[in-house]
Amino acid sequence: MQNLKIDGSRLWQSLMELARIGATEKGGVCRLALTDLDRQGRDLFVRWCREAGCTVSVDAIGNIFARRAGKDNSKPAIVTGSHLDSQPTGGKFDGAYGVMAGLEVVRTLNDLGIVTEAPIEIVAWTNEEGSRFSPAMVGSGVYAGVFALDEALAKKDIEGKSMGDELRRIGYAGKDRTSDRPVGAYFEAHIEQGPILEAEGKTIGVVTAAQGQRWYEITVTGQEAHAGPTPMPRRRDALVGSARMIDTVNRIGHRFAPLACATVGFVQVSPNSRNTIPGRVFFTVDFRHPVDATLSQMHEALHSEFRAIAEAAKVEVEIRDFWYFAPTPFAEDCVGAVREAAGRLGYAHRDIVSGAGHDAVYMAKVAPTGMIFVPCRDGISHNEVEDAAPADLTAGCNVLLHAMLERAKANP
Ligand code: GLV
Ligand code: MN
Ligand code: MN
Asked: What's the rounded Cα separation, in Å, for the pair 143 and 385?
């Protein structure tokens, strides 16, 4: 049992085959949640799971669960997974790695004829990225009871299409009640998406916690007017006010350095015409920090500084506190199982806090949860050039196998 290893080349081949669905010219992936491409990715995953002997079910928010029976199926399942949706300019590994690593664990157990005490499940969560439908981690959030199912199904994309309609359209509006499945423990393997492991030459990140996040939706209203005849002092330019606010977001990030992160990633200018002074701007803010009290200070700074900027620029600002989750520690026993497996398998490892949000954050609310990070090249993610070494992906999957076996119990 101590020497069990997964098949690294099979894992790599599965990742590369999945990455063909939504492949971009620059070598990345665009597989936005609940698009036709997402459906193709889901279909491939479901086919592979069935071929591996799993029973597949889909819940009402489209989360896919593939179950490998154990000896005692009354025991809560030991679950692993991640997401198949991507950013618009995403990479091959963000999310896909965690799902394919789960599949590789099941395939390895099949090869070796190992039957675990508790059943094992692989899950592909719906809309983790929060790019097409916001916020992020919606499927796991519904599972964990953070979002009401109806609210989640009603979320709309930029074209006004709802998650519920899109789930039905792609054939993944399942019948199972979300949250009905007891989970004994949840593990998620993921690329780090940051530079720490690579810089320190470590193969495995033992994830102890995820930093907190606050997302905002900002609407700035000024007055549309002609770009020629309107004298500068008379203007109420929504874009000028927004530009100052966006700069302030960046300054707040620097003010609470080194651990704070602050990003404006989405901006809509209206009417977006060269010779009309912008009358309305909508933009988003993403704040992150591992310490909740500091995240609150950033929150206060945003509210007070945006109001001051709006007044000086003679525009109105509406600040919508859109999404929040507190810094989340993972379960000591799951973190310990990951650390112990990494050590036993001889991989250089270190403890690490996740900068990104993951479905594991919401799973931590309902089950003992742990995460495994592996390095990614130059620490780059949410980018088509995102890359990871096959040997590191293999190592992370081996750690996943051993951590899961420790929880699911198996006798040789
Ligand atoms: C998920 O990708 C996040 O924004 O952390
Ligand atoms: Mn991810
Ligand atoms: Mn992501």
From this structure: 32
pLDDT band, very low/low/confident/very high, at 411 (cuts 50, 70, 90): low
Angstrom distance (rounded) from CA 193 to CA 88? 16
Which residue carries 């742990």 as its tokens? 370
Distance 326 CA to ligand 1 centre (A): 14
Mean of pLDDT values over 215-244: 98
118 close to 80: Cβ distance less than 8 angstroms: no
pLDDT in tens, 74-112: 999 999 999 999 999 999 999 999 999 999 999 999 999
Look at residue 3 in the predicted model and tell me its pLDDT.
84
At 2, is the pLDDT very low, low, confident or very high (cuts 50, 70, 90)?
Answer: confident
Q: How far is the CA of 90 from the centre of ligand 3 (A)?
A: 8
Residues having CB closer than 6 A to ligand 1 are 129, 136, 356-357
Mutate to test the pocket of ligand 1, among 371, 382, 383, 386 (most ligand atoms within 8 A of CB): 382
Of the candidates 251, 237, 241, 236, the one whose C-alpha atom is nearest the C-alpha of residue 309 is 241
The HSE-up count of residue 296 (CA atoms within 13 Å, CB side) is: 5
Sketch out the chain's domains with CATH numbers. 8-211+327-411 (3.40.630.10), 212-325 (3.30.70.360)
Q: Tokens 């899950």 map to which residue? A: 123
- The tally of CA atoms less than 13 A away on the side-chain side of residue 233 is 0
Residue by residue, DSSP assigns 194-255 as SSHHHHHT-SEEEEEEE-EEEEEEEEEE---EETTTS-GGG---HHHHHHHHHHHHHHHHHH
User: How confident is residue 410, by pLDDT bands cut at 50, 70 and 90?
Assistant: confident
Helices of type H across 115-213: 138-143, 149-153, 163-170, 196-200
The stretch 250-259 carries a mean pLDDT of 98
Give residue for tokens 């664990």: 105
